[in-house]
């Protein structure tokens, strides 16, 4: 593993924003009750994973880190507390570009490391933070940088320099200051124009990435976090059989689960056999097809 993160002073003039305002429509019905950013992966809310990654870079606290919220915003606000500056968007989410535009006064002249809360990243050779540090190291403050991985089809729509985006980007203030606080996305507002101007660089991410936006990828990320075995919270009660699954705090498993996520506080009754599903509270079961 790489060494400890450089202190925040090693990245002067840079702040960070975690985008957590989305409605998570592809992950419904799970996101009807919990915002996507707070859905657990490996028994850790996705938002906490993002904040820990920033902390690994020395970026912490409301002066250096902001989180935006909209869908079920009260849950995000309560969960974040004083760990970051909070930007609550009224009405519908403003999107990835509008969310930054809404934070212009807070960003105030700085470059911005932007992370999607729903990005699951794991690199066994680097601690969280150091695994994305290449985005920041040697940055000239002018170009746009994206974290990416080689695409199966380098010419496919949505790719950048033959890469698929993996959840983090670095944007200069000169582009952020022009973003209005209205609905818009970074692809059209910043990334594609920068690419056309020859001012976009893709930094390859060597680890594992899942977007977690669909039940299939959400389950796959959890199974990756669990490894080859089961990941069971110490505060869960398990009297049934658990194989390659994730079981959250306060969950009760009396039945048989495999390739399954059991959310905190959820129950699997005796006689139930769950495979390739997500079990949330109140007996909600979301089936998953062909999970990785």
Give the key terms.
single chain; 292 residues; alpha/beta; Spore Coat Polysaccharide Biosynthesis Protein SpsA, Chain A; 2 domains; 7-stranded mixed sheet; 6-stranded mixed sheet; 7 helices; 20 strands; globular; disordered N terminus
Would you kindly provide a written description of the structure presented here, covering whatever features stand out?
- The chain has 292 residues and is an alpha/beta fold.
- The protein folds into 2 domains: 8-210, Spore Coat Polysaccharide Biosynthesis Protein SpsA, Chain A (Alpha-Beta Complex), CATH 3.90.550; 227-282.
- Helices cover 19% and strands 28% of the residues.
- It contains 7 helices and 20 strands.
- A 7-stranded mixed β-sheet has the order 5-4-1-6-9-8-10, with helices on both faces. Strands 12, 14, 15, 17, 19 and 20 form a 6-stranded mixed β-sheet that branches. A 3-stranded parallel β-sheet has the order 13-16-18, with no helix packed on it.
- α3 crosses α6.
- The longest helix is centred in the C-terminal third of the chain and has 12 residues, at 215-226.
- Residues 1-5 have low confidence and may be disordered.
Helical amount: 10-25%
The major sheet is characterized as: 7 strands, mixed
Q: Assign the CATH superfamily of the largest domain.
A: Spore Coat Polysaccharide Biosynthesis Protein SpsA, Chain A
Major β-sheet strand ordering: 5-4-1-6-9-8-10
Shape: globular
CATH class group of the largest domain: Alpha Beta
The CATH architecture of the largest domain comes to Alpha-Beta Complex
């Amino acid at each position: 593993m790489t060494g400890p993160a450089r202190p925040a002073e090693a990245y002067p003039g840079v702040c960070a924003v975690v985008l957590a305002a989305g409605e998570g429509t592809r992950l419904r019905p799970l996101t009807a009750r919990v915002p996507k950013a707070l859905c657990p992966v490996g028994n850790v809310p996705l938002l906490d994973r993002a904040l820990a990654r920033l902390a690994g870079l020395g970026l912490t606290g409301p002066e250096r880190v902001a989180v935006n919220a909209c869908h079920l915003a009260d849950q995000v606000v309560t969960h974040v507390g004083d760990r970051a500056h909070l930007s609550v968007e009224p009405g519908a989410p403003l999107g990835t570009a509008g969310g930054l535009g809404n934070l212009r006064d807070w960003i105030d002249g700085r470059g911005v490391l932007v992370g999607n809360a729903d990005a699951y990243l794991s690199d066994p050779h680097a601690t969280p933070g150091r695994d994305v540090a290449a985005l920041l190291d040697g940055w000239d403050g002018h170009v746009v940088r994206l974290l990416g991985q080689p695409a199966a089809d380098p010419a496919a729509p949505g790719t950048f320099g033959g890469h698929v985006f993996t959840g983090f980007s670095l944007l200069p203030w000169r582009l952020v200051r022009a973003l209005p606080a209205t609905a818009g996305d970074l692809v059209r507002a910043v990334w594609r124009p920068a690419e056309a101007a020859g001012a976009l660089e893709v930094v390859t991410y060597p680890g594992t990435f899942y977007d977690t936006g669909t039940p299939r990828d959400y389950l796959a990320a959890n199974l990756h976090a669990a490894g080859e075995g089961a990941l069971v919270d110490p505060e869960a009660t398990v009297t049934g059989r658990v194989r390659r699954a994730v079981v959250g705090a306060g969950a009760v498993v009396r039945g048989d689960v495999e390739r399954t996520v059991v959310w905190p506080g959820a129950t699997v009754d005796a006689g139930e056999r769950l495979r390739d599903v997500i079990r949330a509270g109140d007996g909600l079961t979301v089936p998953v097809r062909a999970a990785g």
